[in-house]
Amino acid sequence: MNDRTILTDANLEAMLARRAGKTAPAGLAESIEAALAGIPDGRRPWRSYLTPPPLRTPGLRLAWVIVLVGLLMAAAVSAVFVGSQLLRHTNRLAVVPPPSVVPIPSAAPLPSAGPVALVARPIEQINHLAFGADGSLWLATAAGVVHWDIASASATLYDQHDVLPTTDVSRVVVAPDGTVWAGQNWLAHFDGAWTVDSQQGDLGSLGVTGNLGGMAVARDGTLWIAAGSPGEGSKLLRYNGAWTAIDVPDSIAYGSNPWAVSLDVTPDGAVLANTFRGVARYDGTTWTSYSKTSTGLPRTPSLAAVAPDGHVWAELSAEGCEQLTADSPVTCTAPAAGVARFDGTHWTAFTTADGLADNDARLFLGSDGTVWTTYGSLPRTISRFDGTRWVSAQVPELGGARPLAAAPDGALWLASASGLLRYDGVAVTSHPFPALETPANLPPLTLTPAPGQTVTQSALGTITWRVYEADPQHVLWPVGTAHGPVTLDGPDFRWLSPSGAWDGTILPITGGWGVAAAGDDAIVYGQGAARLSWDGARWVPGRALELPAAVGFVLRVAAGPRGTILTGGTSVASSTDGVHFAEAVRGPVWTAPGTGASGTAGPAGIGPVLATQDGFVALVTRGPVSGRWDPLLEPRLSFSPDGSTWSLVSSTSPFGQGSYVRDVAGRDGRYVAIGNVGGERGPWAVWVSDDGLSWELLPTLKRAAPCATVNGVTACIDNLFAGVAAGTSGWVICSWDGAAWASADGRAWEPLRGWPGVSGGYAPPFVALGPGVVVASGQIPGPWHDVVVVGTIEP
Q1: Per-residue pLDDT tens digits for 507-552
Q2: CB-CB contact of 606 with 555 (8 Å)
Q3: What pLDDT shows up at residue 594?
């Protein structure tokens, strides 16, 4: 169930494309959008914007996500999917001699509080960088907020042990008075100690809903934050000793959540925002939008920063970009067109004709007026604006480094694999990451239970249900394992403990968006993969798995008696020890019917994968990879005894003509698939198999009750399954609108009557089975709100 594609918001994706350019995701499943059209905005949860990427997109998850971007999602997309077809630069570079590298000692390790298990934190994943007035650095990382005083070789890590709501931090800014503001889908400030100022949906008394986006501090110390989305209320938040929420017109916000992923402030106090439609300006009274049409620029301007002289700088990123699979290149209908500057009256575009080394450029501005550009396709090239043209240089030491920000003195800071690099136009200075260690285990997450409980009879036994209010800062999408339900929580890993709390640990990777059971173990996967083992009381993370580069982003995992496989969009890696993986010698392919071995063939898109007693089975596309393939139309089967060499089982689908398969789950050698027959929105269907190769269509499932009406709106989304989960107790199928069915053997199904009816919004409900427990996360009415439901099973 965990492997299925989750929907993303098309407007958010388009907005991110303005800022992330070639790395931004694209595409929303139109059929689901249509199905959800009648659902109230309150049922379209904020968490849907932090969901894993569809197969047709390059996106992250990020983490999410993803990862979630503004927020978790912006970092996750940028970290997971990089590279595209870019324009080649045509001008001759002005080359300067390579600068020298002057390393300085690393910061000293911080003392440990006691004899606890220690693991390295992923501080190398830096999401944002801010500069203190004393010259120290504040880093928003996947491990928390790091305060790094390089001059004194000291560093401090602030994380969930220091009351920050989550481990992953997306943004950090420093006010003139030294107050540090940090956020993700929450906001906190540091003035000697951390104070959490907000929770999702509750910023003071403002009642702000939706994600928090860009943050910026004006010269007078005023803090500005983008928050919310249309339908829930897009706001520009101002803090100058007291909070004020300013309404943002939908013509500016245009359906994205958050409505702006970056902000900056002009010297005279006007706020500039990066939106889906271009750059927006708020002068305290009036909103003005600078779009591609109104500016006459060749691309929609994407805000980079405001210069000290008030000039607004923007990137002209590529448009119409998409990636069919995680393994395929990104293609764009309109390539990047350079950068642009706005003087308050006119926009001026700069391209390779003006000295840029490439038109796909990233802008960074220092408060001293220095303007830099870097290039994704030219990692060793950097350019600086001399007031008229761009002067480019080759700097070999910057190859592979990721630019972060320009310091007040104009130096450019970049993140490398081993630490930070500072480039001042002459020399590169290397600063190795400080050695920071903290306890691996996280503070438990305790959810607030709703009053009362419900007891129901089911095919699994007697189930006692308890409803818990979801913590909006912790997204729990459970997956079943041999040791109970587990979930990713941003870059962290959590599991349901016997006390009812969600215990947690940090992970050795930061790009995970899925979890799969692997015997007694669990594998976290996404941008990389890591195995966790159960020590009898807790999950213990091991080291990251060794994966071939060809797999790229891991989308699915299957483990069984013949080994373990990890799959990307069209690629497979296999392992016999579950740690060292090799690229498949021959992956799954499609072949045109009737053409034989010499006919048309090509790499197939890989859907659900199964580990059977005899090997591995993959459900694959029936033809060339194009568009999205979740659900899979008339999937073919590909088989491999060891995961290394794959063969097409049949040229026809065992699920039947016009079939769509959405999800598959198995246990004890039996597999259950769910989907539709007679079209993507046709009657829902359930198939069963005892070998993964031969599939039997079961009788159509019936609802326990007719479609309900909630708050005057029909709550049903006919014939749309959300997922199927398997565990030691049996199987559970849930629909998008809250209906559910249970089976002890995978063949005989009955409606799950009387359960809390957890449903989805833009994101589906998630259901997981563990020994003696079933867990669901999603929404329930009264009014619609996010919940986590735990059912204790008595056989």
Answers
A1: 888 888 899 999 999 999 999 999 999 999 999 998 889 999 888 8
A2: yes
A3: 56
Least confident of 309-323, 430-444, 660-674: 430-444
Q: Is the pLDDT of residue 432 over 70?
A: yes
Strands in 390-394's sheet, in edge-to-edge order, are: 361-365, 371-375, 381-385, 390-394
Q: Which residue in the block uniquely carries the two structure tokens 């790499």?
A: 603
Alpha-carbon distance of 519 to 766, in angstroms, equals 21
Structure confidence by residue, pLDDT tens digits, 708-722:
665 556 667 878 999
Tokens in use for 221?
Answer: 């110390």
10-20 and 70-80 helices, crossing angle to 10°: 60
The model's confidence at residue 80, banded by pLDDT at 50, 70 and 90, is: very low
Alpha-carbon distance values, 417 to 139, 215, 358, 414 (Å) = 15, 27, 24, 10
Decide: 571 and 551 in contact? Cβ < 8 Å: yes
Cβ atoms < 10 Å from Cβ of 27:
20
- Of the candidates 500, 478, 503, 504, the one whose C-alpha atom is nearest the C-alpha of residue 491 is 504
CATH of domain 291-321+335-438: 2.130.10.10
Strand 785-794 and strand 271-275: the pairing is: unpaired
- What is the radius of gyration, based on Cα positions, of the chain? 26
* Distance, CA of 563 to CA of 477 (rounded, Å): 26
CA distance 259 to 49: 12
Confidence class of residue 386 from pLDDT cuts 50, 70 and 90? very high
Distances (CA, A) of 475 to 107, 200, 454, 623: 34, 12, 24, 36
pLDDT digits (tens, 9 = 90+) for 272-312: 999 988 999 999 999 999 999 999 999 999 999 999 999 99
What pLDDT is stored for residue 626 in this prediction?
A: 79
Which of 141-150, 256-265, 360-369, 454-463 is predicted with the least confidence, judged by mean pLDDT? 256-265
Q: Which residues contact 17 (CB under 8 A, 6 or more apart)?
A: 24, 26, 317, 319, 321
Q: Indicate the domain borders of the chain.
A: 10-80, 291-321+335-438
DSSP structural state of residue 53:
P
769 near 666, Cβ under 8 Å? no
Instruction: Say how far apart CA 17 and CA 531 lie, in whole Å.
Output: 33
Phi, psi of 293 (to 5 degrees): -70, -45
